Amino acid sequence: PKDREISGFTMAMTDEEYQWVRHELRKVRKELQTKLMMAREKKQGKKVYQINIQLFPLTNEEEEKPSFFQL
């Protein structure tokens, strides 16, 4: 439908990249919220929308497995 915007992607990241992405997502959310709140001071909104930003792991961190060949 034209009244929805849904997108996403899946990608492997390092711990450092994960922290950077978290930081960037927070900045985007705060910027959107600030600009929209300022716009509401000038003009009333017509519809209520839900905005979701999600970041979560799809895999568990691999634990080191014991090797039967090591003594």
Structural class of the secondary structure composition? mainly alpha
Termini gap = 61 Å
Which regions have little confidence, pLDDT < 50, spanning 5+ residues?
Answer: none
Succession of helices and strands: H
Overall, the morphology is: elongated
Number of strands: 0
User: Helix amount, in percent?
Assistant: 25-40%
Main beta sheet:
none
What's the SSE blueprint?
Elements: H1 15-42
Output the keywords:
elongated, 71 residues, mainly alpha
Summarize this, please?
This protein has 71 residues and is mainly alpha-helical.
Describe the structure.
- The protein is mostly helical.
- 39% of the residues lie in helices and 0% in strands.
- It is built from 1 helix and no strands.
- It has one helix at 15-42.
- The radius of gyration is 20 Å and the shape is elongated.
- The chain starts with 14 loop residues before the first helix and ends in a 29-residue tail after the last helix.
- The model has no long low-confidence stretch (mean pLDDT 90).
